[in-house]
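## Example pair
The file below holds two records. Each record gives the amino-acid sequence first, followed by its structure token line.
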Amino acid sequence: MSHPLFVTLDGPKGAGKTTLLEAMTKVLRADNRKVIRLCEKKSDPYRAETMALVNRLARNPARDLEWEVCERLAESRAWISRQVLTQQPPDSIILMDRWYPSDAAFRRKVPFAEILQLNIERNVRMPDLHVGVVTAPEISWARAAARSRGLGSTVIHRLEEHVACTEAFERESANHGWVLCRNEGSIEDATRQVVAEIYNVLGEGPAFRR
């Protein structure tokens, strides 16, 4: 590879993204691949200010305020694109937990296309492989609720909201050609699917190894 392969995972809360990332990392490293694990919120130097806006938005939903949140996230991702992604070894595989534009599917007032264009204008790096991780919303809701930190959401508090966001996410995944991983079976099956997609992007075909 002349540059790192940039792979992002996103999806509703409780869909199993973190568990899948850990399993993918183990498999790829066992295959002697250099894997860099990144998390958007941990790489974002402006996260505190953005979350303050998100909390305001949760209390008083308004399109102008939601647009400001989208702008701040785009600026943060542009900074990460310049300052973090460009510093990774060219022969590495970057696995990122959450990235644009998939979170736009969860926005309520600003259309997805506008958020996508905003990120493009800010020169936010597009993933080489964008994976949407989903389950039936009742399953992911129950998983999230069972965690020690609970649902952990600032803007979603009811099952019907979670269902609507899951449906929106799946719709945008299909519209934009993201790889959809339905993580309702074994973690081995989900890992096999996504790792095979990574090797396909690398031009190496199926190379999953147990």
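Second record, same layout:
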Amino acid sequence: MIKSGQRLGGIAGVLVAAILWGTTGTAATYAPDLSPLAVGAVAMGIGGLLQAVMGISLIIRQRRLISRHWHFLMTGAGAVAVYPLAFYASMHYAGVTVGTVISIGSAPLLSALIEFRYDGVRLTKQWGGGAALGVVGMVLLCLAERSGHGSGDDHAMTGIFLGLLAGFTYALYSWSARRLMQAGVAARAAMGATFGAGGLLLMPVLLMTGAPLLADGHYAAVGIYMALVPMFLGYLCYGYGLARIPASMATTITLLEPGVAALLAVLIVGERLPFGGWTGVSLIVASLGVITVPAGRFSFTLLRRQNNTPLKYKQEINHEG
């Protein structure tokens, strides 16, 4: 039985993370000459290592439990290493709004497919309706942004492909981290180990591409912000939420991120968003309401095979008004 207070706390944690992540595209525009690989490596690499430092005592205490589930750790670490490189390269080729929309917008659907394939999760109609609203909103947002910039970008398809890769790896590390938590690993230890290992994998990329960060104080400030605020603090909030709600719900709630990114692009960067884009942002916000606010009762069924014996879990939350 999931307590409503825990669920609401989990939702709040993921919402804060989504808002912080929405600032990354705008922050990256302040370092236009910095390679997207360097941006991704410093943001997720340093941020991941900081998470490992924060959870080191728990990681050491639970090292045997973590080692028994090493396949989830390695899967998550690999996904953490690929995600920022694909994400920032997607924004570089397709633009801040489109790259964010594709990367984050594809994650809930890919997360649902991962949970359906490996966990046997049956998602509710409520989730499906909310996800559909969010996807339509992101499509409108994407089309509006592209129409505002013309159609002469030869690299747009490359950016879209990289965005899909980012969405898949985002869904994959969310799923693997939650599986570690479900196996009994504390949230801080699961996130710290996963992101710390992923951060180590990103260090060679940072060494090869990060020279401008040391040569220019302005670029260094951008890198420090990216590592400390959206990546470190944001993922602390995300880990808190992920321990309390399913990965598919968490990734769907982060549909707020493209809306935040688009709003900041308009207010700070100076991009213009047509009416269709604002309609898309409104649908994204509406999707959050559909997904996160229980209409009387929220339930989903998780079917899992363990020791070749089907087990059925049913979790329900009664609306307390």
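Notes on the second record: The chain has a mean pLDDT of 81. DSSP finds 15 helices and three strands in the chain.
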